[in-house]
Every structure is written in C-alpha cells, then in structure tokens.
Design brief:
This protein is mainly β. It is built from 1 helix and 11 strands.
Length: 188
Amino acid sequence: MLLTMLFAGFVTGTLLGSKFAPYPHMARGLVDSPPFRSDSDSDVSAEEIELIQGTGGDIEWILRAGSADYDQENGMVKVDKPKVTYYLGRDRKEVFVRALYGEVSQQGKGLKLWDHVEGHYDDMRLQSDSLDFKPKDNLIFLEGNVKVQSPSLYISSQRVKVDLKTREIMIEDGLEALIAPGMVVMPQ
C-alpha cells in the first residue's frame, strides 16, 4: 500500500512537473509514446520517469525512461526507451544499459529490457536482443545476438549469464571468441 501511494505521488509530481516544466532535468529531448500504451490496461501513465531501487541505504540501480505505464494489479511498470545505471560492489562501479523497451517488477522480481539492448562497463561494451536482471540471485541474463567486447576480448553468443557478485561471464550457448594475447594477462 505504501509503495502504491509513493508511486502515485511520484507520478502526480511528474505529471505536474511536465505541465509547468516541459523539459524536466532528466530529459534529453522529446520522445514518442510507447506502442504498448494504446492497447494497455494500465492504471497510471507518465512521461519522463525515474525509478530508484536500493537496499540498506545503497542504490542498486536507477532507471530513467521516456514514458511508463503502471499496472497496479500485476505490480509491473512498462517503460519506453529505458536507461539503467547499475551500481556494483563495494567500489560502486557503474554499469550503463539502455534499450527500446523494458519492464520493472514492483515486487522486486527484477528488470527486463528488450530490443536493441546496449551497455558498457569501464572499457567493456555489450549488445543483445534482451536483458533479464534477477536481483535475488544477482544475475543478469543476456539473450539473442549477444556481443561482449573490450580492447582485449570479443565474445559472440546467443546466451550469456553474468554473475554480479563474482563478476564472472558464463557462456551458455554457442561461442565465438577472439582474445588478443598481447593484451590479456593470463592467471599464474
């Protein structure tokens, strides 16, 4: 109930802010309405939103999107043009990911992004058709045309799992890799 009231207050503030300030601080330009809005049974719709997820006083991720529809019955927020910043580990390293569409579970079940998923972490870049973040397991699943690239590594696969605790990348289906030995330090 408290979460619903907070979200409703946030949406109301966003709607009022968009009326009196057509370019909120997080906007980079106007965005088109998402395709799911026209046939959606959402309870609330908003433009230019920001959702923040955290535990124990630490921010886990921030999601910014062009627009969103909230389905209170299913506890889902469907977003258009999401941009997500994850904060990893004690050093709070930032991982940036964006896509054309996404949805966020308000019950903490995770975050899904799809269509032209792109991201970067330090000098590592990634692309895939979809991303599924499971916060309870601290895992990210990348599916469809997955490409991971850094100055010393190139991986292409159909399915990749990333463990955010150990920072391990696990290839789960078909692998093509190129490693530049002059750039990679091999373990002793």
